[in-house]
Amino acid sequence: MRITPLICVLVLAACTTAADTAPDIAPLVELARDPAVTRVALEMPSGEYALDTRHTSVLWRVRHWGLGPYTGRFDRASGTLNFDATNPAQSSVSVRIPLASVSTGWLNQAGERVFDRDIAAYLGGEANPDIVFESRSIEVTSPTTGRIHGDLSFSGQTHPATIDAVFEGGRIIATSNRPAIAFTGRTIIRRSQWLAGTPPLHNSNSPGDEVEIIISAEFLRPG
């Protein structure tokens, strides 16, 4: 297995997307929604929320050799959300993802995650250890959907990126009496935009240029 092509796949995973190429997304269908969960943003308190890292996932998919999508993830992320319930377009979000947390699930014969470390190094993790997304504006497209426009910094470069987001709901967590809100985001980026100037792949068709990123995030108000 060649490391370089799949590494590029990972690059995409880290990033968050270009708006005009991102597909629409719909909330996960449930047979019965918990009555304690509201889908009305106005019913949740405004203010600063922190990313709940235990209930957040960052997945990425890239087509390998023109065949099936190869899937990986980042195991860690942190961030803040300044939520304006009465005017969601005035909200803002910031997310930071450590490159060292990249995870493909692939181990060498000694059971070590060498492949993941190689990917992080290829993505410039030593000089730029984090992937950072900072929102600039939010476009509300319906009571539960919107587009988050911002700047994505990665591999020493910063480019505009857009995330299509769905408000999954909010509730008061019974065990802590803290408000929590959840979002799902999906985007597609081109890895070549953030990896410009890097050595060419042995076969440019190997990983594919488009990377799909799916982010499921919960945010908690401070206790």
Describe the structure.
- The chain has helices at residues 3-14, 114-122, 191-194, and strands at residues 47-51, 57-63, 69-74, 78-83, 92-98, 102-103, 130-142, 145-154, 157-173, 178-190, 210-220.
- The chain has 223 residues and is mainly β.
- The chain has one domain (3-220): Lipid/polyisoprenoid-binding, YceI-like (Lipocalin), CATH 2.40.128.
- Strands 1-4-5-7-8-9-10-11 form an 8-stranded antiparallel β-barrel.
- A hairpin with a 5-residue loop joins strand 2 and strand 3.
- Mean pLDDT is 83; it is low at 1-23.
Which helices and strands appear, and what pairs or packs with what?
Elements: H1 3-14, E1 47-51, E2 57-63, E3 69-74, E4 78-83, E5 92-98, E6 102-103, H2 114-122, E7 130-142, E8 145-154, E9 157-173, E10 178-190, H3 191-194, E11 210-220
Antiparallel strand pairs: 1-4, 1-11, 2-3, 2-11, 3-6, 4-5, 5-7, 7-8, 8-9, 9-10, 10-11
Helix pairs in contact: 1-2
